[in-house]
Structures are given as structure tokens and as C-alpha cells.
Amino acid sequence: MKNPWIGFVVFLSMLLSGPVIAYYIAKMWFVAAWYVALFLLSLYLAALNGEKVPSLFTTNRKWVLKSFLFLLLMYGLLMIVNTIFPAPSVVNQFSQLDIVTILIITLIGPVAEEMAFRGYIQGMLRKKFNANFTIVLTALIFCLFHSLAVFPQIFVTAIILSFVKELSGSLLPSIVIHCLNNTVALVASVFI
User: Fold this and answer.
1) Gap between the terminal Cα atoms of the chain
2) Angle, to 10 degrees, between the axis of helix 172-191 and the axis of helix 61-84?
3) Rounded to two decimals, what is the model's pTM?
4) What are the distances in angstroms from CA 131 to CA 39, 115, 119, 127, 135?
5) Rounded CA gap, 87 and 44, in Å?
């Protein structure tokens, strides 16, 4: 795809159609396959966009440790946001938790979303805009693909993830944060 807009339209088509099809199929194997396909398409488009793909997945140990600090910062900010904009009560939406569902929520989904939003979209926007505008715009786009009922919470999370990717130059720290956050959310929705 020589024209980046064609790639972006293909990307958006996949991003929008996957959840709709998954809703009607209602099979977790489809969701897992869709996330893998989204990851691979995002990886391909990021490479076409000039991203140095290996550098997206390399970082030093300090950044992995900093990920935990940013996770704590994110939770602190989320406590403030939840005070101002209370999130709807969490209801256990998983009638059956199997290993595929757990892997999708805690690993496959976050890795694919980080590649799609921070790896491809943020990388593409960063070539055209300054860092601050890119971080905010990437966060807003990320929010559009999550529940609007928790927009403020998702926005804060997305800002932190985009900021960490911008600072570190790697997806690994934001992947660590995203995976840990989803794991905490899953555990909270099941046990609390």
C-alpha cells in the first residue's frame, strides 16, 4: 500500500468491524483471532509508515520499572477522576471465564491495542503534529473504541499510555501498564 490513507482506511475498517462481528458471533476464539489480525495489520502499517519496528519493542530495564510508577500515578489520577465523574458500578460481565477470555483481557487485547493505538496511530500522528497534540488526539481516538460511560477514566488511562510511549519511545512500558491495568480490572470485576 503506497498510499498511507488506503492503509488507514483498511485499519479503521478492521478496527470498527471486528467488535461488531464479535458481538454477533459471540465466540472468544473470534475475538482472539481479530486481536491478532489487528496487531499484525498495525505492525505492517507502522512499518510502512517508517516506524522502526524493532525499536518499538525494545527498552531498558529502567523503563519497565518506571511502568509500575506510571501505573501508580495513573491509579492516583483515576481516584481523583472517579471522585469528580463517578464510574457506573462494575457488574461482572463474564458469565464464564475461560483461559481464552482471561488471555484476551490481560494479554492479547492490551498488546494488540497498544500496537494499534500507540504503535501505529500515535506514530502516524506524531509525524504530522507536536507531541502534546499527538498524545491528546491518540487518547481521544482510543476512547472512541471503549465505553463512553467511562470516558473520563479511559481518557486518563489513554493519556498516561500515550505519554509513556512518547517518553520511552517503546511500546513495552505502555504494554506493561495496559496488561496490569486490565488484570486488576478483571480481578476487581470478578471478586469485588
Assistant:
1) 47
2) 50
3) 0.93
4) 23, 18, 14, 9, 6
5) 36
Cα separation of 97 and 101, whole Å? 6
> What whole-number distance in Å separates Cα of residue 157 and Cα of residue 86?
15
Residues 61-97 pLDDT 10s: 899 889 999 999 999 999 999 999 998 876 556 567 8
- pLDDT digit string, tens, across residues 92-118: 565 678 899 999 999 999 999 999 999
Please tell me the total number of residues recorded for the chain in this structure: 192
Residue 74: what pLDDT? 97
Q: Which residue type does 29 have?
A: W
91-98 contact pairs (CB < 8 A, 24+): 91/189, 92/189, 92/190, 93/189, 94/189, 94/190, 97/190, 98/28
- Residue among 5, 85, 94, 87 at smallest CA distance from 45: 5
User: Quick one: DSSP state of residue 148?
Assistant: G
DSSP alpha helix (H) spans, the chain? 4-25, 28-48, 53-56, 61-84, 99-103, 109-113, 122-126, 131-144, 151-168, 172-191
